[in-house]
Amino acid sequence: MKQLAQELKNNAYPGRGIVIGRSADGKKAVTAYFIMGRSGNSRNRIFVAEGEGIRTKAFDPSKLEDPSLVIYAAVRVLGGDTIVTNGDQTDTIYEGFTKGLTFEQALRSREFEPDAPNYTPRISGMLHMENGGFNYAMSILKSDHGSPECCNRYTFSYDNPASGEGRFLHTYMGDGNPLPSFEGEPKLVEIQGDIDSFANMLWENLNQENKVSLFVRFIDIADGQYETRIINKNQ
Q: 93-123, pLDDT tens digit by residue?
């Protein structure tokens, strides 16, 4: 099991990241999503609440360049399902669920981002709350070792996750040109503390120069009530 603080501190540019798991006391389903940026367009963003979810928004609209890959609903909620992703595939999954598709089926129509030469992976997560329990799934859609000719699709499902444990999936292995896509299974990480200490730990260990925004939600497994924290570098 890895320490999230160290995973973040030792990687100057994990890009976008999703954490999902169960709180140490076993009572809460936990999810977090952060965004980072190297370009002015990526850094010119904030998270804002939208219904039960959140979306990205330009901090200074006059400086917004291409909105296609940076402005999207990052989190949406449908019944007992919470969807969190790094792009507009949030909407693809949401709409797929309304048509009876599974998480994996809904994502079959999508692939990595068309941002050559990085071909940024699309990472997605889904928490499903039902009958006083929960499970979750994570997905990554990535280029074939940097080649856009093939999309590699991986889905990871976790039933009845253990207390104090989660999984961490992010877009890049580290900084570089082109940026190297994430490899392997989502990392097993420890989840400790309440929502504020967990959010502060994440924010404090993200690279100071590159971090942009952070979302954290703790959902009561028994009744579905939740608490949310949003931290934006741009104020």
A: 999 999 999 999 999 999 999 999 999 999 9
Helix (H/G/I), strand (E/B), else coil: 189: strand
pTM over 0.70: yes
Q: Closest Cα partner for 46 from 60, 32, 56?
A: 56
Structure tokens at 226: 């939740």
Contact status, residue 37 vs residue 177, Cβ threshold 8 Å: no
- Could you report the per-residue pLDDT of 75-84, keeping only the tens digit for each? 999 999 999 9
Tokens of 81: 């399902």
Amino acid at 52: E
- Residue 177 CB contacts under 8 Å (≥ 6 apart), including other chains: none
Q: DSSP readout, 120-164? A: PPEEEEEEEEETTEEEEEEEEEEEETTEEEEEEEEEEEEESPPBT
In order of 13, 14, 47, 61, 214, the CA distances from 176 in angstroms are: 9, 11, 26, 28, 23
- Is 21 exposed, middle or buried (CB count within 10 Å of its CB: 0-12, 13-18, 19+)? buried
